[in-house]
Amino acid sequence: MTNVTAATASDDAARDRPIPPMPSTPWWRSAVIYQVYIRSFADGDGDGTGDIAGLRSRLGYLRDLGVDAIWINPWYSSPLADGGYDVADYFAIDDRFGTVAEAEAFIADAHDHGIRVILDLVPNHTSDQHRWFQEALADPSSPARQRYHFSAGRDGGPPNNWRSVFGGPAWTQLADGSWYLHLFDPSQPDLNWDNDEVRANFLDVLRFWLDHGADGFRVDVAHGLVKHPEMPDVDAYGPVVHVVDSDDHPHWDRDEIHDIVREWRAVVDHYDGAVLVAEAWVHPDRLANYVRSDEYHQSFNFSFLETPWDAAALRSVIDESMRALSQVGASNTWVLSNHDVVRHATRFGLPDPARWRAWLRESDPSEPDRDIGQRRARAAALLLLSLPGAAYLYQGEELGLDEVWDLDDSVRDDPVWFRSHHTDRGRDGCRVPIPWTATGPSFGFGDAVAWLPQPPEFATLAAEVQAGDEASMLELYRTALALRRRHLSDDESFEWLASDPSVLSYRRGGVTCVINLGDEAAPLPRGEIIISSGDVHDGLLGTDTAVWVRA
Ligand code: NOJ
Fold first, then answer.
1. Per-residue model confidence (pLDDT) at position 19
2. Contact in structure between 504 and 380 (CB atoms under 8 Å)
């Protein structure tokens, strides 16, 4: 009997490397990029909120994990009405996070650790506290209003039926009777991208941060910048946040967006190795438009994220994505979790993982099955990290953190909670600060209680507790990242192998990856098992388990 426990291989040498010189294949095509939600990563100054000092103190952890780059959620000056996606000054760091000098020193230090740094660009809207919006409010006849979308309205009401992604109408009326557009919170007025000053300003923002050492930008709401010039009603509103599949929506995925991206790309191309990454919730066929050779380098594959734990559905989304993106020569960008969605360890333990949005609105939410969720999350990690292309990890997934779905209502902070009149629990549950140690007021997050309370179970999931335990999620990720670098990163080849319909089996160069999503044990291919997400017995792979096998 062969018993192989998870994460058997170790590869310290592969983890310990500086940023390599630019190879012929650009670094980002197969990179592993770790998302840092800065408020919740590590608190260096003891005020309960994460910051640059805390993040800097954890660079060794990120290097040892083996990631190529990090993407940091917005750290700019902001009222934090939407966690920083409401920017008051794009050229300043919020006091709670640090200073521009600290940011610059941090980026240099990250580079010394072999880690590139991608920032978040928020071009669809500003904060209502931004100087531009304040100028627009001050004088109804001011040209400052042209930087945003103001309107006199229609028949005494808003100009159209557009809805805010966070709930309620997308228009707010001012005391002077005029309306302004906000696809998100009323404190996030949408910018008018037909305005030359708006366009010029963001080119300055790009240059400012690239000159401070940044390696690129993840672009917020990349599919929303341009609105239909006549602002017609939306014909039929489905769920407001979803993967858009339409080529003529009045405010999502309009073709004019691509001219703007080309202007940005021309700037970014002056900086060696810098990248643009689109947050565009669109169907793979339309996603391909965003990653044409003179536009974004990458665009998150949200169709993959939205796919339930089902072999046929996953096979089809993988095929569809690879087909669509290969037509423009782009590589795929796989992702399972981020700061906007229910953590996948919890999603996969729901009675219907695809209905996680509805679950957030249940008044008496059904309890997720934690064992199933964890087992699938381990298998999903080996799926994510073995597909050809780049992979994004969300902080804490390497610790197997669950969604904290039972936060007390009194601590909720997400505008979704408020805009939905307390009917949608929103995104706070995936933003609870990271546990680093088993003890302390915030499990090593900092010296104070964290801004969102951590549940007691976080003590057992702390990074310090998992490190060195080869059965832990952390060691699974560390080992998988090292093995990926050694065996999978240089080669984008991919070939499906024959298997039972409930099993995903494919070859990547010399490695065969098998993920069993069925109820029955599945046969293993011949060869050396270099990693498995769970125990393997007698040449059989159990339910919800994955392996990588070397011929
Ligand atoms: C997408 C971001 O990921 C999300 O957190 C934010 O609320 C909206 N865009 C609005 O900026």
1. 56
2. no
The residue nearest atom 2 of ligand 1, judged by CA position, is 220
Note the pLDDT of residue 2: 34
The protein residue whose alpha carbon is closest to atom 5 in ligand 1 is: 340
Considering only CA atoms, which residue is closest to atom 4 of ligand 1?
Answer: 340
Exposed/middle/buried for 205, CB within 10 Å: 0-12, 13-18, 19+?
A: buried
Q: Point out the residues of the chain with pLDDT beneath 50.
A: 1-17, 21-22
Q: How much distance in Å is there from the Cα of 498 to the middle of ligand 1? A: 40
The model scores a pTM over 0.85? yes
Report how far residue 107's alpha carbon sits from residue 281's, in angstroms, rounded to the nearest whole number: 29
Contact 485, 66 (CB under 8 A): yes
| Mutational test site, ligand 1, from 221, 223, 243, 394, max ligand atoms within 8 Å of CB | 221
Strand partners, 523: 540
In this prediction, residue 8 carries a pLDDT of 40
Task: Please tell me the residue having the least CA distance from ligand 1 atom 6.
Answer: 85
**Could you give the CA distance from residue 510 to residue 495 in angstroms, rounded to a whole number?**
11
Rounded distance from Cα 302 to ligand 1 centre (Å): 14
CA 312 to centroid of ligand 1, rounded, Å: 30
Measured CA angle at 151 (ends 149, 152), to 5 deg:
170
Tokens at 226, concatenated: 């341009």
Q: How far apart, in whole angstroms, are the C-alpha atoms of residue 242 and residue 45? A: 38
Tokens of 176: 């002077």
pLDDT of amino acid 237: 73
172 sits in the region (left: phi over 0; alpha: psi -120 to 50; else beta) called beta
Q: Rounded to the nearest whole angstrom, what is the distance from the C-alpha of residue 439 to the centroid of ligand 1? A: 32
DSSP 448: S
How would DSSP label each residue in 379-403? HHHHHHTTSSSEEEEETTGGGTPPP
State the pLDDT at residue 18.
Answer: 53
How far does residue 382's CA lie from ligand 1's centre (Å)?
28
pLDDT at site 535: 87
The CA distance from 551 to 268, in Å, is 41
CA–CA dist 423, 175 (Å, integer): 29
Mutate to test the pocket of ligand 1, among 37, 78, 85, 124 (most ligand atoms within 8 A of CB): 85
pLDDT of residue 23: 53
CA 270 to chain centre: 26
Under a CB-based contact definition with an 8 Å cutoff, are residues 328 and 368 in contact?
A: no
In the chain the domains, ranked by start, together with CATH numbers, are 131-181 (3.90.400.10)
Give the binding-site residues of ligand 1, using a 6 Å CB cut-off: 82, 85, 122, 184, 220-221, 279, 339-340
Half-sphere exposure of residue 504, counting CA atoms within 13 Å on the CB side?
A: 28
DSSP 8-state class, residue 222: T
Residues annotated as part of the active site = 220, 279
Give the pLDDT of residue 88: 98
